[in-house]
Amino acid sequence: MKDVNYFEGTPTTNVGEIRVTSLLDGWLSLDGGAMYGIVPKVLWEKHLPSDEQNRVKMAMRPLLVQTPTNTVVVESGIGQAIPPDLHERYGIHRIGPTLDQLVAAQGVDPATVDTVACTHLHWDHSGGLCKFVDGRYVPSFPNATYVVQGGEWDIAIAPTNLHKASYAPESLTPLESQLKTVKGNGEIVKGLSFDFTAGHTENHAVIWLESGDEFGVFFGDLVPTISHVPLAWISAYDINAGGSFAAREVLYPKVLERNAKCFFYHEPGYPVGQMLQQRSKYSAEPLVQR
């Protein structure tokens, strides 16, 4: 069984003129069987060992993206959206700072963040969009436009019984005055765009980065870790596993054709990788071996 080298750094990767820093909001542990769906434990535990409760430890890694024209945050970590009494259930261990403080630690004034974008709004990806101040949630970036899929927003702020365990609407509603919703594919800012995939949620979208002839792709939860790259290694948390499989079949050839750098939100090791293909099988390896 693999001895995972958990990576706690915040590496910076260039995609042409775009500077991408993988932040770290902390860690969570979810059931390994759920995270790997139909894949047997004898296979997935070679990549991520489980604890005594069969949980695998994963990171939460928002991106700070600095383009020639914009300062963008992609995803937000768990923030303060989940009460402490649930931290043990989900194996949550945050490193402490709020998202704006994580950005400030990179030498960037949070007031200069002009755009925040999310692949979807599950609480482990959107919980840091707002922070808790004087007993209420307020936007973490007061001058930013928050860009999300409209269908995802509608579900997130009024989740049904099917969805309510996955969303924290009270941590999202303060964003309404700064919100921009889109539908499907489309530009976020120059150099960043949504590629609508569905699968993990009904309205999930990955995010492409493009600068000159260089590309990057942030997978969100369509491909949460490097070990999830094989086509059938799909989480049981996906609302439509078949949809995720179909989306990957379309997405992966583009990733290879563009030689895109791959950014993995939940990867516990080094979070930036390169996709590989051998015949019909896909895999990925870290861009920096550790």
Features:
15% helix, 30% strand, 19 strands, globular, alpha+beta, 290 residues, Metallo-beta-lactamase, Chain A
Q: Order of SSEs, N→C? A: EEEHHEEEEHEHEEEHEEEEEHEEE
Tell me the strand order in the biggest sheet: 1-2-5-6-8-11-12
Q: Mean pLDDT, rounded to whole units?
A: 96
Task: Please report which band the strand proportion falls in: under 5%, 5-15%, 15-25%, 25-35%, 35-45% or over 45%.
Answer: 25-35%
- Strand tally is 19
- Using the 3D structure, state the CATH architecture: 4-Layer Sandwich
The whole-angstrom Rg is 17 Å
CATH superfamily: Ribonuclease Z/Hydroxyacylglutathione hydrolase-like
CATH topology tier name = Metallo-beta-lactamase, Chain A
Beginning-to-end CA distance, first to last residue: 17 Å
Regions with pLDDT < 50 over 5+ consecutive residues?
Answer: none
Number of domains: 1
Explain this structure.
With 290 residues, this protein is α+β, with helices and mostly antiparallel strands. The protein has a single domain (12-286), classed as Ribonuclease Z/Hydroxyacylglutathione hydrolase-like (Metallo-beta-lactamase, Chain A). Helix content is 15%, strand content 30%. The strands form four sheets. It has a seven-stranded mixed sheet. It has a seven-stranded mixed sheet with strand order 13-14-15-16-17-18-19. A three-stranded antiparallel sheet has the order 4-3-7. A hairpin with an 8-residue loop joins β14 and β15 (205-211). The radius of gyration is 17 Å and the shape is globular.
